[in-house]
Amino acid sequence: MKNILKYLAVGFIFGIVLTKSEAVSWYRIYEMFQFQSFHMYGIISVAVLTGIIGIQIIKRNNIKDIKGESIEIPAKEEGSSRYWIGGLFFGLGWALVGSCPGPIFILLGAGFWTVSIVLFGALLGTYLYGVLKNKLPH
Q: What sections of the protein cross the membrane (predicted)?
């Protein structure tokens, strides 16, 4: 139960940060895809940089997971069609609905109930991927 509370706390903080930084704003996402503002590119750059630093800290200090086991991050394949196709679908979905998966839940929590349609679409897409993944290029 103690670990669940930690995850909930991090989730709430993450939601507050994304909301205050306007990363959940449809208008900010629209500006990004229209190349009218650096705002979202700055947020994404900070996230990527944080991820790179975090992964390096994990690798160099042999940090353990919550169960005390070593975290092993396998090397990715060199560029392939699956990354391009997946990125294209992700980007198109993001541009069409004005939200990536994380902010869907934040927007629902903020009372934007129409986003439940987007959540349904995301879950349906995830389900269809699970059904079709053996037929897709991997």
A: 39-58, 83-106, 112-132
pLDDT values of the chain reduced to their tens digit, one per residue, 138 residues: 777 888 889 888 988 888 888 888 888 888 888 899 888 899 989 999 999 999 999 888 888 887 888 888 888 777 777 788 888 888 888 888 877 777 888 888 888 899 899 899 889 988 998 998 888 766
Q: Is the overall model pTM greater than 0.70, yes or no?
A: no
> Is residue 68 assigned to a domain?
no
Boundaries of domain holding 31: 1-36+75-135
Instruction: Give pairs for 33-37: CB < 8 Å, separation 24+.
Output: 33/94, 33/95
Domain assignment of residue 98, yes or no: yes
